[in-house]
Amino acid sequence: MKLKVGKLGKDTFLLTIGMGLRAFSQGLVFIIIARSMGADGYGAFVSIIAIASMLSGLVGFGSHVLLTRDTALDQKKFNSAWGHTLLSLTISIPIIFVVYLLFAFFILPNEIGWIPILFIGIADLIFWPLSNVCVSAYQGFERMGRVSRMIIVPVMMRLLSAFIFLSLLINENIQYSMLLTWSSLYLIAAIAASSYTQWMVYKDLGKPLFLNSHWFARIKESMPFALWASSDKLYIDADKVMLTRMTSLDVTGIYSAAYRLVDIFLLPIQSLIGAATPRFFQEGSKGIHHSLIYSIKLIKIPFIYSLSIGFIIYLSADFIPFILGSSFNESIEAIRYLAWIPIIILPKILLQSILASSGFQKKGMQIVLMGAAINILSNLFLIPVMGWKGAAIATYIAEISMSFIMTLLLYHLMKKDSLLTKAI
Fold it and tell me: Which of 71, 213, 233, 257 is 20 to 30 Å apart from 332, CA to CA?
């Protein structure tokens, strides 16, 4: 199939606008919260977010991926796929929320307090997932303008909440806990965003159709995607949780601030992959060879961008204390340690897309879970010796390991597929 550069370019442009605005808004939120709370307070907030994030991939049992896939292949299946997604969310949320509370009880320091933990958990495990599945709904129709809006709305609500938080901070006559106040505003933003995005899907795409007869079969099919997402989140956020447990909240804040800044620069790559997801499934349905060829056509621009942005991040690290405050001075070195994450992570992102779109989501999930295990074990060994530097090194070890193992798996699958084709 000839790559339709115009359509993909337009979709990527629309998503880049959405993710660009999201990155800008998230950057403002990050600056406001980090500068207001300092390294210690920001570390407390991030440690709660990290636990919720590790479990958020399980919310909905991965049904949002089937929603995108089924709609991309046959738009008439949207209503039943949408009903299955909402049903899966409803059933999964209570179970996962209990697990979240147990993790918080055993991991987080008592000084954080339970009300912020509850508020942030409700926001990240109930209302933000209700917003995120709306992205998948429009993604299946390749309506990237709407996808862009669904991406922007939640973070704009968060930004509005951050400005309200800042206005309260300026008023010196108001006495309050910064973490409690921000977690309250964070929850309100999540409720507002999910209400709007769910209403938009209902208005634009129609009502959900609830068909319970095939629910368990679809859960069995979608669960590898959920475990994959959860493994990915575990890999990304385990180091922050472990830093909280093994060092201190201010060290967690310093490292997390650096990681957050680097993560924002990954958004354009995520835009491209997001725009290409429906086509990955279309090509993957023909065989893994087609999905690989499609990914090769995409790789040039992300590679140049990732390499360039690494140099930019490294060279601009000195400006961070001017933006976030003096409590983040040590983040300069942390940013330089993490500056090359975009170029290191790119092969894994493309390999994941190839495997997931070609029906090998279980194998991909197993590799990501293996990567999470490598990351955790590396952190257990390195953090006590090197602090946040150990966490950064563990990230590189895990990324390179996953890319290497996925490459070996892809080679094996391609070779097997080639032999099967010859036999036929």
Answer: 233
